[in-house]
């Protein structure tokens, strides 16, 4: 496994399990798993960490999606259509990323995330109940924002895609946090498959390591999905706020101190 020590492998397994848990609850597990891979393999190009991260994440998000589908009702067809649009948009974002410095985008994303955190804090009932009429205009807006916009962002930069999807689905489609998380998992499976296909074609996936981490990630995803279903929207909302704070810190560090 590219001369990785047992200590480093154990640390990667723990990171993968925690990332799977975070992803299953609210998205954003890549904030933990991707840096761990970059630290473990500093001699390899970053593309290998990105490719391996996708190979691991696709297993965890699939496990979480199956768990949600068995335990809570949500529109799987809508989620799959959103996922297809997001996957196509992420490919476009990946091509766009080649000509854009991520340092230009990070400050904009930080401001957006701080706005999201303020919104969730000031709206304590946001995402708790869900329901209500969803007009065709709102559905189209969801495809534009959650499918095209966030899918494109996933290709350009990536961190926090699941978090943004949850917020968009709650705001635009009147979903509660649990239903939004379930829908997000299906969308994430689609975008991860698309990205993994590209990384596989480029030969930047550590296939000797990925299955081990994928099993850990899947275990964390099962646990996270069950906890979200059991504890409800309030629990997901709390994890969302913690994840947003972590994402802001990570992006700020990359922008100004790394």
TrEMBL record:
Transmembrane regions: 48-66, 78-98, 104-122, 143-173, 205-223, 235-253
Q: Which InterPro entries match?
A: TM_pro_TauE-like, TSUP
Q: How does it sit in the membrane?
A: Multi-pass membrane protein
| Record GO cellular component, one term | plasma membrane
Keyword NAD listed? The answer is no
Give the highest taxon in the source lineage.
Bacteria
The record's subcellular location field reads: Cell membrane
Q: What's a Pfam family this protein contains?
A: TauE
Record keywords: Ribosomal protein included? no
Give the record's keywords alphabetically.
Cell membrane, Membrane, Transmembrane, Transmembrane helix, Transport
Which family does the similarity line name?
Answer: Belongs to the 4-toluene sulfonate uptake permease (TSUP) (TC 2.A.102) family.
Q: What is this protein called?
A: Probable membrane transporter protein
Q: Which organism is it from?
A: Streptomyces albus
């Amino acid at each position: 496994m590219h001369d990785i020590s047992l200590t480093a492998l154990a640390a990667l397994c723990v990171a993968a399990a925690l990332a799977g848990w975070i992803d299953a609850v609210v998205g954003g597990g890549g904030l933990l798993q991707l840096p761990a891979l970059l630290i473990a393999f500093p001699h390899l190009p970053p593309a290998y960490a990105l490719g391996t991260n996708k190979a691991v994440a696709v297993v965890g998000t699939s496990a979480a999606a199956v768990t949600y589908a068995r335990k809570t009702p949500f529109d799987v067809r809508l989620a799959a259509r959103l996922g297809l649009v997001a996957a196509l948009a992420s490919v476009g974002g990946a091509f766009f990323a080649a000509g854009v410095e991520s340092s230009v985008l990070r400050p904009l994303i930080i401001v957006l995330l701080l706005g999201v955190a303020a919104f969730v804090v000031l709206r304590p009932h946001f995402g708790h109940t869900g329901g209500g009429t969803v007009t065709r205009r709102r559905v189209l807006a969801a495809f534009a924002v959650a499918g095209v916009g966030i899918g494109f962002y996933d290709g350009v930069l990536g961190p926090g895609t699941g978090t943004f999807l949850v917020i968009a689905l709650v705001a635009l489609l009147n979903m509660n946090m649990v239903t939004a998380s379930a829908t997000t998992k299906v969308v994430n499976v689609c975008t991860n498959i698309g990205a993994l296909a590209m990384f596989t074609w480029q030969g930047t996936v550590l296939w000797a390591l990925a299955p081990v981490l994928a099993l850990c990630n899947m275990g964390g995803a099962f646990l996270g999905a069950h906890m979200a279903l059991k504890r409800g929207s309030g629990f997901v909302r709390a994890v969302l706020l913690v994840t947003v704070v972590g994402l802001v810190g990570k992006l700020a560090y990359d922008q100004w101190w790394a």
